Amino acid sequence: MLDKNGIAQRIAQELQDGWYVNLGIGIPTLVANFVRDDINVVFQSENGILGMGPFPFEGEEDADLINAGKQTITAMPGASIFDSATSFAMIRGQHIQLTVLGAMEVSDSGDIANWKIPGKMVKGMGGAMDLVASADNIVVAMRHMNRKGESKLLPECSLPLTGVKCVKRIVTDMAVLDVTDQGFKLIETAPGVTVEEVKAATAGRLIVEGDIPEMQL
Amino acid sequence: MNKVVKNAKEALAGIQDSMTIMLGGFGLCGIPENCISEMVDLGIKDLTCISNNAGVDDFGLGLLLQKKQIKKMISSYVGENDEFERQMLSGELEVDLIPQGSLAARCYMGGAGVPAFYTPAGYGTEVGEGKEVREFNGKPHLLETALTADFAIVKAWKGDRFGNLIYKGTARNFNPAMAMAGKITVVEVEELVEPGELDPNFIHTPGVFVQRIFQGVNYEKRIEQRTVRVKA
Predict the structure, then answer these.
(1) In a domain, B136, yes or no
(2) Assembly ipTM
């Protein structure tokens, strides 16, 4: 089983040189810590910056420089800053190559739910609906099961949807899975996790073909 | 031409109960602190506020929520505010949550004279309920309408007497789009300068969109999530 850093590390392997990438709040934010040295990736934060850098050193925080999670950040050399309408023009216009976001549930047809638990938690969708509706390449970072031990990979989402048929790949603490027309397809298992364990933890349709390799971290 | 007014009180002359007000900012970054505080003092109520977020319990729009001055919020994300959540779940506060990109575009289009547009965001979700759907390039899109406001209240870094504005860092966020969409656009700046002092090549909001501008005071610029790293 991977911890959240392990999930982020595996997702970082998806990154390619020259890509513009939007990282959501939570585990996705950690992906920035695992970018290979030999590639250049530019991180977008939808509140209006391309070229988001690491957190500032203590004492150098700037209230006017934050990310979408409202955390203080720095700007990399070559960064650019813009307004919200322009920011979502680059998202909607598919100028961003990869979107990584968290989820509460994903269905085996690629639907995602991550913004609302009726009657309980209503924080809003923020930029997630714009991101999932437009991005070509969406990777979900999440734990395979919720705190109650129930699968988050379902035949149908039970929570209000954020987007339909949009998720391409899911990286969990147990596995890497792709969304196909026939359901979730198991691509890799996490170190120490068996195919049988992934099957037991996946409520949606799951395809297992041939030998499944273990993640190389 | 002189759009300069003395302070927030003068800038908000004519603001009334039940008006629709746009407020720039993302979280607490780039919010019009002086005008929010003036709105609290004025005690105007039944407001419809269009703002990406709703502040925190004791700052930003949270101050107006505490005094129950807001009837309806139009936002994309409202976490970090317990009073907001309480008023929403109890039904005291009407809330229209809309995708952030749609919110930005709806303000921009409101100011740009485009009454409606299609976007894929929210198709197949609650956001799409009751909205016209049309397919373009094989993909379903929702018809979203533009937003305008009686007052758009904006915070900029520098501005001149003609209303030309420059923002700093990610405090820009929703401010430029909202500046375009107000029947009356009010701007508070950290530094008010004379025309000619700002390089025309680097103006973010041209003065044509602005009706009133003033030199703000006592900026608190609160940080919501102070995150730092340790020097190695």
Answers:
(1) no
(2) 0.96
